[in-house]
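All the exercises in this workshop are built on plain-text protein records. A learned vocabulary of local backbone shapes supplies the integers on the structure line. Once this layout is familiar, the rest of the handout is easier to follow. An example says more than a description, so a record of this kind follows:
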Amino acid sequence: MVLVSVIIPVYNVQDYLEKCVESITTQTYKELEIILVDDGSTDCSKEMCDKFAQKDPRIRVIHKDNGGLSDARNTGARQAEGKYLFFLDSDDYADCLLVEKAVTAAEKFRSDIVYFDYKRMEPNGDIEVCGCNLPEMCPISLKTNPELMLQTLSVCAKLFRREFFAKADLYFPVGYRYEDLGTIPKFLLTADSVVYLREPLYYYMIREGSITTGTEDEKNYTHRKKMVEGVLDYYQEKGQFGTFQRELEYLTFYNMYFIPAREMIYHDRKSPYVKKCRDLTVKLFPGFQNNPYMKNMNKKEKIQFWILEKRQFWMMNALSWARKQSDRMRRR
């Protein structure tokens, strides 16, 4: 069995850490190096990490000053020794078969990256299986399947070959949110072989008040802008912008305008950053509305896009209210 390095950044997650670590120590695949990167925790997480390491010799703890999620991931990746890398956020958890199935696929197809599905766990108990629109269990790449760029960007829903990861020399941008947005599209440009495993093996927990559900419009806008522009610059530098222009256009639309605008409207439909997000998207890609990938949006997304373009933001809130009422009725 080849060694797999599991990197878990830890920062003030004492209520979730035990379940997260247990989901790895009980994997059916046993040849693991489990790296807990304590990123300057101020709660009991630090002591919990040390106790876990005392119980399981596969666990190694790195204590460091707080530098953020990207810095913790980078620290773990640089010290990892396994053939493969798997990043697990400390408030999430993994299916017990995740490593075994991902490694089996990686070894069979000699893959640089293995994609797999995940379950999005909402605070209200709703569960959504998030998958990809990709060929299953066969080697693909961005050149053969450019739609790869438009699948899930979460680094946690992937397994990486460590040699590929190090050779790409692409580490997570320190000090910024949406680090996966700024990193995964770059990795895809350098990957020779990607394989997709259609099975939900990761559990992504949505927490109230988390970064992704927060209301810091200015910071979120600034950080998204930095990540998107970094990706576009990278493709320009590599001479691949023209080749993947349609994919980069849709990536920008979806992550710079569509997603953040919806989030902003739900808490403040008068936020000036909704317009800023759209204006930047238009500046980068003036004709983004005609992107061919628009046809692949589902019915709900098409309605939301129409609302955004018509600036009928009250309708977005009304639809959200109706959905919540329906959820309450369903749970009774």
User: Anything to note?
Assistant: The mean pLDDT is 94. The CA atoms of residues 261 and 274 lie 5 Å apart. Strands lie at 4-10, 32-39, 59-64, 84-87, 93-94, 113-121, 127-130, 158-161, 194-205.
